[in-house]
Amino acid sequence: EIYKIFDDTTGDQKAKLIALKNTIKQISPTDLDVFLAEVDCNNYFFSGNWSKFAELSISGFIEKLYWYQPYMLSAWAGHFFQHIDDKVKLQKAILWVKRAIYLDDQPDFSLTYAHLLFKLGDIDKAIETGTHALNLAAKSKNPYLKVKDYEDALKEFKQGVANEKEVKTH
Questions:
Q1: Model confidence over 78-120: pLDDT tens digits?
Q2: Burial class, 26, CB count within 10 angstroms (exposed 0-12 / middle 13-18 / buried 19+)
Q3: Cβ(57)–Cβ(76) under 8 Å?
Q4: Do residues 83 and 112 make contact, with C-beta atoms less than 8 angstroms apart?
Q5: What pTM, to 2 d.p., does this model score?
Q6: Residue 154 CB: number of other CB atoms within 10 A?
Q7: Helices (H), 120-146
Q8: Most CB atoms closer than 10 Å: which of 43, 62, 72, 81?
Q9: What is the DSSP string of 77-118?
């Protein structure tokens, strides 16, 4: 329902979100606060309010809703490496993607982990993890997976090492 609201740009999204939250309240699930937090968090995501998105994301609802869903854990972590710079919040995303990898070691999960490590400045570990992701991608039978994307990311991580060495020599 959340995605339908944001896909339909002809109506009042704010009013539709309020209506959705009221419906959720009427159903009265056990973890009402968790579901309402997800609605609000998706609102922040679609509106590009990354600071509020990050704050609410780390509040605990992701662990309650997605702890056994590796694709969702990795997806949320991916949003963090793309939009969040706060190191404490990025560490939370690392926990999510490590859990995703524990549940199902997929190339894209490892690549997300590598991007987070790179963003946090752990370039050597990013290269190690990116290499693992590339190896998984090369062995994958997934026709939608593009090995070149993994090679490009690994090249970016290695360039980070080169840049770091160049800065130290000046």
A1: 999 999 999 999 999 999 999 999 999 999 999 999 999 999 9
A2: exposed
A3: yes
A4: no
A5: 0.80
A6: 19
A7: 123-139
A8: 62
A9: HHHHHHH---HHHHHHHHHHHHHHHHH---HHHHHHHHHHHH
